[in-house]
Amino acid sequence: MNDAIEEILGQLTLEEKAALCVGAGPWKTVSIERLGIPGMVMTDGPHGIRRSSDLDALITKALPSTCFPTASSLACTWNRDLLTEIGQALADEALSQDVNVVLGPGMNIKRSPLCGRNFEYLSEDPFLTGEMAASLVNGVQSMGVGVSLKHYVMNNQEFKRMSINVIVDERTMREIYLAGFEMVVKKSQPWTVMCSYNKVNGQRCSEHHELLNDILKKEWGFEGLVVSDWGAVRDRIKSLRGGLDLEMPGPQPANVQSIIDAVRNGQLDEVVLDESVRRILTIALQAAKATKKKDFDVDGHDALASRAASEGMVLLKNNGILPLKKINKIAVIGYFAKEPYYQGGGSSHINATKVAIPLDEIMKQAVDCEITYADGYTFDGSDQPELIDEAFMAASAAEVAILFIAPPSQTDTEGVDRLDLEINHQHVALIKAVTAAQPNSIVILNNGAPLVMREWIDGPAAVLEAWMMGQAGAEAIADILFGKINPSGKLAETFPYRLSDTPAFMNWPGELNEVRYGEGMYVGYRYYDLKEQPVLFPFGHGLSYTTFSYSNPRASTTAFKDTDGVIISVDVTNTGEVAGKEVVQVYVRDVKSTLVRPVKELKGFAKVELQPGETKTVSISLDKRAFAFWHPAYHDWVTEEGDFEILIGASSADIRQQIMVFLQSTRDLPCILDEESTFKDWLEDANGKIIIEPMYLQMKEQFNLMMGGETASEAMGSDLMGFILEMPLIKALQMQQSALPASADQIIHGLLLQAKMGKREKV
Ligand code: BGC
Fold first, then answer.
1. Tens digits of per-residue pLDDT, 411-450?
2. What φ, ψ does residue 367 adopt, rounded to 5°?
3. CA distance linking residue 353 with residue 310, whole number of Å
4. Assuming Cys at both sites, which of 121, 448, 626, 651 could form a disulfide with 622, CB separation 3.0 to 4.6 Å?
5. Going by CA atoms, what residue is nearest to atom 4 of ligand 1?
6. CA-closest residue to ligand 1 atom 12
C-alpha cells in the first residue's frame, strides 16, 4: 500500500472520487487542485502522436508528429530493439506535446485479414504480438509516458464493433486472444489497458468482471488503470463493479452523479470506487513526474521512421532483378508514387511532419538514369483504360518498370471491415498490361493487410510488400530497390491464396449481433498447418539479397524439468555476397498430447545481422509456457511429460533444423474424473488406472472367452472392447447392477472419491 495515495484517498470527498472516474474532456482526465492531483492528457495513437490541436474538441486536426509505419509493418521487423527505440521516440514527441498517455499499441489478433483495423494490429500470432508490443511499451514507459494496451479484448472486427457479442471458448481465449496481453502486462506493467466496445460471451467488455478483475488485475497482477475505449461505457455502475476504472471521454456529469447516488443508496460499495480511484491516482501522480520537453528531433525521428519502414518491408518475390543494377531507363508507374499511401484511416491518422515521395526518392538514387512516369490509375481506382495504355507504353520503352499498387482507397480504416482481399480492377489490369510489356517489372504494395494476388503474381519479376509504411517509407523503398538496404522483414501474418481459404471465413462477421469464433485456436498458420492448406506466402516468410544457412542445432539439455526450461542454439551463416539480417524462428511441436494442439507454435525468435561469410550462434530460451497449453478442465496452463520437437526455421514453412527434447512435467494436477468419465478416461488418469484396470482386464478376459466356438467380439463382428472403452464407467456398472453389492451410483461416487483423494485402492 502506498501511503501517499492512501492519504490523498482519505481526503477526497465522495463527489471528488466519483469525478475522478470519468474524463474531464475528450482527451483529459480530472484534476483536483486542492489536493495537487494532476489531470492527464491521453491521445492516440499506436504509430504516432495524434494530439488534438484543441483538447476540448473530439475531432480536430492533430499537431504535427512523426508518422511511423503502422503495426502491420512494425511487426514484420521482428526487431525488439527497434520497437523500443520507436517507443522512446513516441514518448519524446508525447512529452513535447504535453501528452501523458499514448493510446496504443493495438494488440488485437488478426483473426481474419478482413478486419478494417488490421493495419493497426501486429500479428496473427500471440507470441509475436506480445513480444513486439512489450518492446514498444518498454520504450515509451522508460521515458515517463504511459501506454494503453488496446483493445482488451477480442475486438477483432469492425462490423458492429460497439455491440457484437463474441462467442469464444475458454481455451481459445487464453491461448490466442489473451496471451499477448498477458505477456505485456507481466513483462512491462503498462500504465493503462483499454477495454474494448464488444461483448465476450454475453458480457460487455467494459463490465466484464472475469476479464478485468479476475484475469487482468488479480491473476496477471496488472497495477495500472483500466480505461474504456472512447464511449464503451453503457452503465457506469456496472462497469465500476466489473473493474473499469476510468471512463473516457468526458465530461459525463450524469455518470458522475450516478456513482455518487449508487454509493449513497448502497447500490455500489465504496470500496469498489476507492479501488478505482487508487489506481487512477497512482497513474496520475506517476505521469506528473515526467520531464516535459519543448520540441522533438523532427529529422532524427524521420530517419528512424525510414529505418523502421525498411526493416518492416517484406520482399515477397524476387527472380534476381533486385537490387537493381546499372540501368539507363526506368518507368515509374502509379499515382501512389507521387501521392504515397502510407497510413490508414481513423483515430490513428497522423498529421505527419513531412512525407517523402517515392518518385522523388527513386530519382535521387537512380543516378544517370532516365525516369519516366505514368499515373496508371486515379485516386478513386475507377476504370481508366487510357491510363493503362499510357503505362504500357512507358513500361515498354524502359528497361525496368516500378509499379506502385494499393487497395481501393480508404479500405484500411477504423470503423469498417474490408469486403474482400482484392485490389481493384484497374490495378489488376494495370499490373497485367505492364508486366506483359515489361518482364523486368517490380510491384511495390502499399496496404495494411494481406491482398490476394493469384491473378497477377506470376507477372512481375519482384514484389515488395511496403505496407502502410509511414511518412518516410518512400526513402526506404528506394534504399531497398537500389540495394542500399538489404530487406530483412518477415511476414507477421499469412497471405492466403483466396479469401475462402482463411480460418474465420465460415464464421465472419457474424449476424444478429453475435459472432462465433468457430475456428477456435486455429488462427493464422495454426489453421493452414493443420489443414495442410497451401498459402501464397506463409507466416514468417521474407526474402533477402543474401542467403543464410542453419547448422549445428543443439539444446542446453535434451531432458529437462518444465520449470527449468531449455536453451536452444543454432549457428547461422551468411552464405551470400552481401551483409544481411536473418530472423531465426523457433517453433515448438508437442509430439503427443491428451488434448488436440496446433501442429506447431512460435515460441521464440531472434534477429541477427551477419557480414558475408560470417557465422553467429543464435540462442533462444524456452520457458515452461513455451510447452504448455490451457487446459479447460483444470482452468490452468498445463505441461505434459513427453517428447517435444523444436523446429528452427526461416519461416513457418521453411524449417531448416529440428531437434527432439524431453520435458519432465512437474505438474501436480487434481483428478478431473466425473460421473460421465468413460473407461478410457479412467484408464488415462494415473489414479483412475490403478483403480479400474483390474475390472477392465476382467471384462476383456470375459469377452475373449470362447462362447460356442466364437469370442464375443467375433460374434458381434466388432471390437467390443472398443465399445466398452467409450462407455461411461457408470453405464458399465449399471449393466451389471444385479451382480453388484450397491447401486452403480453409490459405487461410482466411492470410486471418484478414491481417485480424487489419490487413494490407490483397487476394486
Ligand atoms: C478507438 C480507439 C481510440 C479512441 C480514441 C476509439 O474509437 O477504438 O482505438 O484510441 O477511439 O480516439
1. 899 999 999 999 999 999 999 999 999 999 999 999 999 9
2. -70, 145
3. 19
4. 626
5. 230
6. 347
